[in-house]
Design a protein that fits this description.
42% helix; alpha+beta; 2 domains; 6-stranded antiparallel sheet; 5-stranded mixed sheet; binds zinc ion; globular
Amino acid sequence: MTGAITEEYLTRAAVFPLDPSPAQERLLRSYCGAARFAHNWALGQVKDNLATRSDERAAGLSEEALTASLSWSAYSLNRVWNAAKEEAAPWWPEVSMHAFRSGVVAAAAGLENFRSSKKGTRKGRPVGFPRFKSRDRSKPAVTFTEINHQGSWFEDSDVLAGRVSPNGHRIRLMLPQSTPDRDVQRRRANLAWIHTTESTRRLVKKVADGTASIQKVTISYVGGRWQASVLVRYLVQPVIQSVVRPRAPGQAGPDTAIGVDAGITHLATLSRPVPGLTDDHGHIANPRVLEKQLDRLAKVDRRLARCQKGSKNRAKVKRRRARLHGTITKTRSLELHRVSNALTNQFDVIAIEDLNVAGMANAKRHLGRALADVSLAELRRQLTYKSPDRGTTLVVVDRFYPSTKTCSSCGAVRAKLPLAVRVFECSICGMSLDRDINAAINIEAESRRLLKAKRQSLHQATSPQDVAGLRPETENADSRTEKTGVPTGTAALAACRAEPRSHATVVV
Ligand SMILES: [Zn+2]
C-alpha cells in the first residue's frame, strides 16, 4: 500500500511568460481569432441542427424522418469543420490548423459540460448552453495539442540531435501549413520560436529524462501579457516518509489545525501566530511591492475615471490597468505560494472559507473586497493541489457560516459587522479582538467541529453521505487537479488516518 497518493501521475500546469516579437504577436492574434471563429462556427452548426430538428418536429415529422442529429464530439465536429472550412473560411491556410482545432475542441468541451450538467453527472454549479465568443469579451487563447516529438516544444531537431547547445528560453510557435511561396516560407520560419522570459530548463530536463510529458500548450493573453501554459503530466515517485510536524505544547487533539482568512489589509490572517510566517498576532503582511502596486492601481483607476469614453487615451490607460492587474495577481500569487507551502508543510488540517461566488460576479464590488476574493481563490487553488501531496486535509467551511460575526470566545453571533469596523467587540462577554483574527479562529473551530462529525460518521460507517457543511474539494473545483486521481475528501481523510504520511515532490 502507498500513502495518500495512489496514482503514478499528476497533472500540473507550468506557466511561462512570453515575450513575442511584433510579428509573432500579430500571428498569435490571428490564431486566437481563428480559434474563436472555429468555436463560434461549430456552435452555430450545432444550434442550426437543433433548430432544424425542432422545426421539423413541430411540423409533424416522425423521428425517423428528421434531419440527422449532429454529434457533439470534438472528433466529429472537427470532421465537419474540415469538410466545410474551404467555404466557411477560405483564409484557412493563413493560420495553423491547430488554431481551428483548438476552437472546435473548446466548443465540444462547452457542449459536453452543458450536457453532463443537465444530466446531473457534473459536479458544481449548473452549466448553461455555451455562448458565442465575442472579440471584446473573450480571452484570446489558442491551444496546441499534437506534436511529433515531446522535446520539439522547446528545441529544434539540431539541438535534439546534440548538434547545437540548447537555448532554454524559448517555446515553439506552430506555423501555418507550408506554402509554395519561398519568401513567405522564409519569413514564417523566423517566427518559429517565442522567447520566454523565464527559463524552461527544469521542465525540459524532466521531459528529456522521461519523468514528465507535455499534454498540451495553451498560449493566451492574460493581464496585458502573453503567456504559455504547459499542461504537464508528471511521473510521481511515491517517496514514503512520515512528515514530522511540530506539536504545540499541551495540544489536546491529535491534529494540528489552522484557520486561514484571506484579506486585503493583510495578505492573510491565521487563527494563531506561526513563527517565521506571521507577526505576533497572526497576520501575514502584504509584501511592500504589492502595497506600491496597489497604490499605483488606485491612481490608474482615478485617471481612467477622468478619461473621455472611447478616446485613444482611455484605451491606453485601460491597457496599463490590465497590465498592472496582471502584475498584482502575480506578485500576490508568488507570496501565497510561500504561505501555502509553509501551511501544508506544518499543519495536518487547514481550514479556509468557501468563496463567495455569487458576490464575485458582481462587477461593482469594492476594489479591496474583489482583490481579497481573488487572493482567497488563489490560496485555495494552491492549497487544494498541495494538500493531498503532503498528507494535509483541507477543510472548506461553508460561506454561510458567520465567521466574521461570531464571537470566538463565547460564540455569540452579532447581527452585522460593517467592513470598516476592524475590531470585533463582544457585547456579551466583553471580548475585543482584531476582526480578521476572530474570523480565522472561528474558521479553525468550525473545521474541527466538522471533522469530528465526519470522523464519527466514518467510524459508525453507517451513513456514507457527507456531513452538512463539510465539503471537501471536488474535482470540478480546479481543472488543474482534474484527472490526477488524488484522493480528496473522505478518501484523503481515511488515507491520512490509516497510513503513514507520504511526502511527494511537488513541482510548482
Ligand atoms: Zn463573546
